[in-house]
Amino acid sequence: MIERHWDGIASYCRPENKVSLGLVEGLNNKIRVLQRRAYGYRDEGYLKLKIIAAFLPPLTHRHHDDSQYGTRPT
Fold first, then answer.
1. Is residue 34 situated within a structural domain?
2. φ and ψ at 73, to 5 degrees?
């Protein structure tokens, strides 16, 4: 898998694109935890989705007024 993306990885490793090692280690640790928890998954695609979802911002719950949806409060 890395071989397919090697050109992009190598081009990102230029001095102007430096990333702190703490950030990289944190990302690596998060992925390793997901891999340990994913032991037994039969679908590699599902693991990839779990990794992507782990880095998405959390959803916020918005409170809304039920009257605009045609329902009455009970």
1. yes
2. -65, 145
- Residue 15 included in any domain: yes
Full-model pTM: 0.50
Query: What are 40-52's pLDDT values in tens digits?
Result: 777 888 888 888 8
User: pLDDT digit string (tens) for 29-42?
Assistant: 988 988 888 787 77
Alpha carbons 41 and 29: distance in angstroms, whole number: 19
**DSSP secondary structure string, the chain?**
-HHHHHHHHHHHTSGGG---HHHHHHHHHHHHHHHHHTTT-S-HHHHHHHHHHHTSPPPPPPP--GGGGT----
